[in-house]
Amino acid sequence: MAINISVSRLNRLHEASKDGLILLILTRVEAKDGVAVPTIVNSVSELHDKFEVRTSVESGEPVLVGLYQMYTAEYLLSTGATLLVYPTAGAGAFTGDPSINKTYYVENPPVPEPSTTYLTFRSNSSFSLKVNDSTKHWDGTLYYSTDLETWHEWDGTTILNSVDNKLYLRGKGNTVITGNNQNYKWVLEGSNIGCTGNIENLLDWEAVESGNHPSMASYCYAYLFYDCANLTSPPALPATTLADYCYAGMFSGCTALASAPALPATTLAYYCYNGMFRGCESLKVSSDPTETYRYEWRIPTSGTGTEAIGWNYSMLSGTGGTFKSDPYINTTYYVENPPVPEPNPTYLAFQSDSPFTLKVANSAKNWNGTLYYSTDLETWSVWSGTTTLSSVDNKLYLRGTGNTRITGNNQNYRWVLTGSNIECVGSIDSLLDYEYGTSFATKMANYCYAHLFRDCAALVSAPALPATTLSDYCYCYMFSGCTALASAPALPATTLANNCYDSMFRGCTTLASAPNLPATTLADHCYRSMFYGCTALTLPPALPATTLADYCYYYMFFGCESLASAPALPATTLADYCYQSMFQGCTALTSPPALPATTLADNCYNGMFSGCSSLTTAPALPVTTLADGCYRGMFWGCTSLTSAPALPATTLANSCYRNMFRDCTSLTSVPALPATTLACNCYDSMFYSCTALKVSSDPTETYQYAWRIPTRGTGTTASGWNIGMLWETGGTFPYDPDINKTYYVENPPVV
Question: Best exposed site among 74, 237, 270, 505 by fewest CB in 10 Å?
């Protein structure tokens, strides 16, 4: 990745540094005598040995720029990046600071972006790698490097040592790396060693670079990391054509391995996954989604798989989760940590088991750059949006350049998929600019993907949405009405934008579990109606934010009739309408989450549990100073609720308790109401149609408990404070009560 340093791109550089080598173009830094450029830099000390700030300028400002550039390089090196430093402050015609999006011309060809077609081992300390029996078992050639600049052939007889805690490998002409013997395994000595990248780079990195999957022989990677107790993360295993025993015992005994790779191959081979994760006690798999097991893991990742003899024998034996048996094909399991994904291709793939078509609903080009389509990944044609694209061999590929928006603020700009069982695979950001990958997603315009797949009933799987910088309305209604969509993509952003997920999965009636929602910085309407009408949803996401935004959870789970448990709601700083109707119509919900906030906001809990007909208890509501509409309609229609919570508030607000328990037909106990100064419509229809609640104006054997408004002292009324408060209740007094008068109820008031 070649990047000219600027403050605004520092965060992007930080993310890029995780992927390997970064090319830095520095305008105010020069190489010291005898240092050829560009050159690899692996450490801060090496940076200062080779480069210095250029001082041969008239003013001090460029010196400061150079210092900043050096500081930035130091920061990237501290994150574990490897830098290819390229100073451009020579004696050319232009020696100023270049402008972005402008073409400049140089004497010699620019150094191209480095390839990432290698396997990376890295740790936070030194480590080594060797073949257990010190013998070469691969049938082609393997190369190793510690700086990505110089590559050496490895014959397997020597021990490879990391430099700056990194080691890189790649191969050519291999079809097997180990073989049918545990003694052919590789041995990693050290601690906390991660392996990242595509494992196929060991077979033939040039084939991988060209977009192909190298062929595997039987036992290709068998026992490769057998008993590597220091391996913490696996490489990607993207192969789609397997070989007998290809991954047998590959990670067996890797006791620190906590995540599994995605396994996309649909046609399995004899004993291909035999004992693959046996004894990986840190790897946790479950057959059911829970708060702990939130991430889907399936064999194959998508589509319909075909079994082979022994393919899954002892695959998960001795792992650390609740499911340790042999997994079934075409069955979704759940893991504690996200699976290592397949390497993202630079295109979006649509595929099915039958022909299908794709068109824009209004037959117009609504994107602001260029989109290309292909049916063979060789020939790419510009798509104007005015034509209907047809699959070939049930596949269709798309990618784009120069886009910041694909649809826009109109549901008629949606895409229409006609067919059945259509999967969408790859990163959605390939539509923006495939040449820049996910980094280009920082340039999403408002409404970028809004309505994109709206009402696509044939869509069964969603693309990856890797963006961490969102824009207003970027994903709103994106999958609304996708009734066949069974799982949601990961949503990694931690800082949200206004309406970013608004109605995103609305009406996805097959969706059973929600994606993880790690965001702690919310925005107005960010989760508004996100899962509205997702009638199959049983597992909600965790909601860790402690400071809310206006309308942030507004109608979020409305009508999720299968949702039996609610997520914890730790927020202590509320916002207007933040929880309004959040769980309205969740008819399976039996108990509410705790509500710890002590300061309320206008309409914050308005309608929150309305229509939750299975709710038997209410949360504690200890706040003493209320806000307008704060509890309005909160439990309206909770027909299983038998007792109201204590309501100790002494400072009321307009409509604060309006309709709060309306139609709670099982409610038999009322709360004490201590406030002496009432507010407009504060108790309006509060117990309307609570047919099991019995109130009388006179004490009797049935009505023996006093109930008064206010509980004691002299109250002051306000406009409409008591309208409909006791209408259609079940006692002898179903009218509007008077202030400062004692009534009698069947059960003791709740205090």
Answer: 74
The answer to whether residue 148 scores a pLDDT higher than 50 is yes
Q: In terms of residues, how long is the chain?
A: 751
Q: 347 with 426: CB under 8 angstroms?
A: yes
For helices 10-17 and 61-78, what crossing angle results, to 10°?
A: 30
Helix (H, G, I), strand (E, B) or coil at 397: strand
Tell me the three state secondary structure of residue 86: strand
**Residues 6 or more apart whose Cβ sits within 8 Å of residue 248:** 219, 222, 223, 271, 272, 273, 274, 275, 276
Residue closest to 584 by CA, chosen among 659, 685, 682: 659
The pLDDT, as a whole number, for residue 426 is 83
Q: Which amino acid is at 368?
A: N
**What letter represents residue 611's amino acid?**
G
Tokens (6 digits) for 504? 């995103």
Taking the alpha carbons at both ends of the chain, their separation in whole angstroms is 65
Domain count, the chain: 3
Give a yes or no: residue 612 inside a domain: yes
Number of H helices, E strands in the chain: 5, 30
Which residues does 625 contact at the CB level (< 8 Å), separation at least 6? 599, 600, 649, 650, 651
Q: Which amino acid appears at position 295 of this protein?
A: Y
pTM over 0.70: no
Domain's final residue, options 54, 87, 120 = 87
Location of structure tokens 């991954």: 247
**Residue 264 dihedral angles phi and psi, to the nearest 5°:** -80, -15
How many C-alpha atoms does 747 have within 13 Å on its Cβ side?
A: 13
Burial of 16 (0-12, 13-18, 19+ CB in 10 A): buried
Residue 92 in this model has a pLDDT that exceeds 70: no
663 shares its domain with 569: no
What is the radius of gyration, based on Cα positions, of the chain? 31
Q: Report how far residue 461's alpha carbon sits from residue 296's, in angstroms, rounded to the nearest whole number.
A: 12
Closest CA to 128 of 97, 167, 94: 167
Q: Which domain holds residue 701?
A: 642-751
Same domain membership, residue 567 and residue 649: no
Which residues are bridge partners to 87 per DSSP? Answer: 26
Would you call 695 helix, strand, or coil by DSSP?
strand
Do 567 and 695 share a domain, yes or no?
A: no
Q: Once rounded to an integer, what is the mean pLDDT over residues 447-476? A: 95
Mean pLDDT of the residues in the chain? 88
**Do 510 and 618 reside in the same domain of the chain?**
yes
**What are the C-alpha distances in Å from 249 to residues 4, 260, 277, 370, 616?**
45, 14, 7, 46, 51
Please determine, for residue 377, whether its predicted confidence score (pLDDT) is greater than 60.
yes
Give the distance between the most distant pair of CA atoms in the chain. 104
Residue type at 357? T
Residues 525 and 588 in one domain: yes
Whether residue 619 has a cis bond before it, omega within 30° of 0: no
Q: Which two tokens stand for residue 396?
A: 């269709």
Residue of 685, 681, 740 whose CA lies nearest to 708: 740
How far is it, in rounded angstroms, from Cα 384 to Cα 288? 44
Q: Is 696 in the same domain as 585?
A: no
Amino acid identity, position 274: N
Nearest alpha-carbon partner for 57 in 98, 24, 95 = 95
Which of 32, 52, 87 is the last residue before a domain boundary?
87
Q: In the 8-state DSSP scheme, what is residue 321?
A: S
